[in-house]
Each structure stands twice: as structure tokens, then as C-alpha cells.
Specification:
By secondary structure, the chain is mainly alpha-helical. 57% of the residues lie in helices and 12% in strands. It is built from five helices and two strands. It has a two-stranded antiparallel ribbon with strand order 1-2. The longest helix is centred in the last third of the chain and has 22 residues. The radius of gyration is 15 Å and the shape is globular.
Length: 112
Amino acid sequence: MAAILAAEIGDVTRFRNAAALCSWAGLTPKHHESDTTVRRGGVTKQGSRLVRWAVIEGTVRDHGGPKLAADWHQIAERRGKHKATVAVARKVLTLAYYGLRDGEIRCLAKAA
């Protein structure tokens, strides 16, 4: 899965931030707004299908590892399993962005 992400994303500096990468992958919710009316929907599914598939497939089985599994269980209780999986997939893609940009993911490092 890491090879798919690295190959499909390519140069990570072309994205302003992690939110831009998640939007490019189609993992952000739809948002329609007109004056005072706001409608939010499911994920946009626009962008790279392969990146979206790889991140969600990697999240389905073990929910993103021990650090993100607690978030998955908390979201699943409130919103359901499928929305929790997409939310954790978005978090995993955010971590992948910082890993590709900085070469390390500090929030997953063991505290000294």
C-alpha cells in the first residue's frame, strides 16, 4: 500500500497541506452552501481512485493501527462503521502526507 501511495502521490510538495491531499484523493465530504442553507453529504469520490482504494483498504482490517483504532471505535459508536473507516482513512492519508514531506511522522514516535 505504501508503494501505491508513493507512486500515485508523487511529489508531495505540489499539495499545499494535508487537507489538499485528502481532497485530491476524494476523501473529503461534499459541502453545498447557499446563503443560510448548508447541506453536507458523503465523500466526493473525485480524484485518484487508486489512492482512495489503497487507504481505505489499508484501514478496513486493523483500523489504522493501535493509535488510530481508538479513534475508529469512538467514531463508529457515534456515526457507524463505514463513516469511521473513511474518517480514519483520511487521518492515515494525512499522516502519509507528513511522512512524505518531512521523512518522519512525529506523532507516532515513542515519547522519550
